[in-house]
């Protein structure tokens, strides 16, 4: 089971995630309390091991901006949380994780129109797109077509529910942000516990 720790804002948090076994590190460039500048993200990214995938989160951003930031920071993927069209996603020169907010089976039907590297299923938007700490109805994913190991599950995950989530949805990866925070800051102990729970469940499966 792969794990993505999103909303990294400090080198300390990034290093804690990597040492705990994170496979993906996420930087938020959209409106968010976890937003980082290109300079911040680059200074963290360049100190992390090569094998850890670096992801940049964008919402309804211009293509030129996305590709410029991806190049400057050294992103392996861009994660799109807005209303980006299938044509827009296909036009990008960098690998894409497309996020979908799931409220019903109708939302799952949108996936069929997109060509991307990963499909990320998230909870309905709160104040910001993503990172709201709410789960969606995982049983809806029983209606999903086969995604051949390209499904990332997000939305309200934490150490106490991630094993159940993996069992219910069988994703390729799980994504967490607020679920590994204390008072709005990344908590190294929670990061470690979450990753241990997720990977132990993945090994059982």
UniProtKB/TrEMBL annotation:
The lineage of its organism: Bacteria, Bacillati, Bacillota, Bacilli, Bacillales. PANTHER family: N-(5'-PHOSPHORIBOSYL)ANTHRANILATE ISOMERASE. InterPro entries: Aldolase_TIM, PRAI_dom, RibuloseP-bd_barrel, TrpF_fam. It is an enzyme of class 5 (isomerase). GO terms for molecular function: phosphoribosylanthranilate isomerase activity. Its EC number is 5.3.1.24. The keyword Protein transport does not apply. HAMAP family: PRAI. NCBIfam families: PRK01222.1-4, PRK01222.1-7. This is N-(5'-phosphoribosyl)anthranilate isomerase. The gene is trpF.
